[in-house]
Amino acid sequence: MTESTLPAQLAEIRDEFLELEVSDRLLLLLEFSNELPELPERFRDHPDLFERVVECQSPVFIVTEVDDAGGVHLHATAPAESPTTRGFASILAQGLDGLTVDEVLAVPDDYPDTLGLTVAVSPLRIRGMAGLLGRTKRQLRERRAAG
C-alpha cells in the first residue's frame, strides 16, 4: 500500500503521533485508551463471539463485523489497567471503522511501527498491536471465504 492509499483516518492518527515529542506520544496513547468505543449491546453478553489476541500481554478480545453497507467495525475489550494495550485497540477500532474489507486488508502489517511509538514502548507491546491488526484481517478473510 502506498502512502496515498493509506486510509485517511489511519494516516491522520499516525500523523497525530508523529507531530508530538516521544513523551507526548505516550500521553496521546493514553487518551486513545480512554476512547476505546463501548461494546454494542448485542456483544456485551456474548464473550463467546470474541477472539483472544494472544500476542498481547494483557487480555484483549476482538470481534469484527461487516455492516450491510460493507463497512468494517472492530469491537475490542481490554482492561482499564492496561492502558497501552487498550490504546492500541482503540487506535485500530477507530482507525478501521467504516472502511471496506479490501481497505482493511490493504493496511500495511507494519502500520503499528509507523506511529513513532517504538522508542516509547517495548517491542513486545508493538508486536501486540501488530497481532491485533493481523487477527482483525484474518477474521475478515475468513468471513469473506465463508460467504
Describe the model.
With 147 residues, this protein is mainly α. The chain has one domain: Sufe protein. Chain: A. Helix content is 48%, strand content 10%. The protein contains 6 helices and 3 strands; from the N terminus they run H-H-H-E-E-E-H-H-H. It has helices at residues 8-18, 22-34, 41-44, 83-96, 101-105, 123-146; strands spanning 51-52, 61-66, 72-77. The protein has a 3-stranded antiparallel beta sheet with strand order 1-2-3. Strand 2 and strand 3 (72-77) form a beta hairpin. Helix 2 (22-34) packs across helix 4 (83-96) and helix 4 runs parallel beside helix 6. It is globular, with a radius of gyration of 14 Å. The two termini are 25 Å apart. Residues 17-138 form the Fe-S metabolism associated domain. This is Cysteine desulfuration protein SufE. Belongs to the SufE family.
SSE blueprint and pairings:
Blueprint: H1 8-18, H2 22-34, H3 41-44, E1 51-52, E2 61-66, E3 72-77, H4 83-96, H5 101-105, H6 123-146
Antiparallel strand pairs: 1-2, 2-3
Give a short synopsis of this structure.
The chain is mainly alpha-helical and 147 residues long.
Relative helix content:
40-55%
DSSP strand content = 5-15%
Listing every helix as H and every strand as E from the N terminus to the C terminus, the arrangement reads HHHEEEHHH
Q: What structural class should be given to the helix and strand makeup? A: mainly alpha
Overall tally of domains? 1
- The overall pLDDT, averaged over residues, is 93
